[in-house]
Amino acid sequence: MQKIISHNEYETIKIGERIASKLKKSDIVCLEGDLGAGKTTLSKAIAYALGVKEHVTSPTFTIVHEYEAVIPLYHFDVYRIDDMDEMFEIGFEEYIYGEGICLIEWADKIKELIPENSIWISISYGNNIDEREIQINGLPEIDFIQSERK
Ligand SMILES: Nc1ncnc2c1ncn2[C@@H]1O[C@H](COP(=O)(O)OP(=O)(O)OP(=O)(O)O)[C@@H](O)[C@H]1O
Ligand SMILES: [Mg+2]
């Protein structure tokens, strides 16, 4: 497990880029953290770093957005899911057992559907308004050095 402190949005974006560089096809990246923690900020940075050219927006109402990149990206926000059947209706199994990368915001809401060995990233609030603690499980360590702070 790796713990990184992000001091501002810019640092979270840099951390997202480093995470993206470690991802490979079929990876499942689960994001958890309170409202406004930075899950979408991190997801967008990962998406652009994977080579997504389209504008990335939060899939809050549509549950999933699909993007073409070197590896296809499936970006989920499952905040609104309260019945696991809804996930099967949108074809979740095909996504998670597919060749693309799945990035799932609020993955803790569908924990029972998440395969073991998935990558988990938890973002929590820190001591001041822009500080976040980012915990990464299941991924090789990323090198994020504080000299990159803006
Ligand atoms: N260190 C930081 N890292 C990420 N975001 C930060 C940081 N500091 C401040 N912010 C701000 O926090 C907000 C994060 O919003 P974001 O939409 O990424 O959160 P979220 O976890 O996806 O929330 P939701 O669950 O509501 O979708 C943004 O307004 C961003 O500017
Ligand atoms: Mg979000």
CATH architecture designation: 3-Layer(aba) Sandwich
Q: What is the approximate shape?
A: globular
CATH superfamily: P-loop containing nucleotide triphosphate hydrolases
Present as ligands are:
adenosine-5'-triphosphate, magnesium ion
Structure, described:
By secondary structure, the chain is α/β, with parallel strands linked by helices. It has one domain (2-138): 3-Layer(aba) Sandwich (Rossmann fold). It contains four helices and seven strands; from the N terminus they run βαβαββααβββ. The protein has helices at residues 9-21, 39-49, 84-89, 92-96; strands at residues 2-6, 28-32, 64-67, 73-77, 101-105, 119-125, 132-137. Strands 1-7-6-2-5-4-3 form a seven-stranded mixed sheet, covered by helices on one side. β6 and β7 (132-137) form a beta hairpin. α1 (9-21) crosses α2. It is globular, with a radius of gyration of 14 Å. The chain starts with a strand and ends in a 13-residue tail after the last strand. The mean pLDDT is 95. Adenosine-5'-triphosphate (ATP) is lined by residues 6, 8-9, 11-12, 33, 35-41, 58, 105, 130, 132.
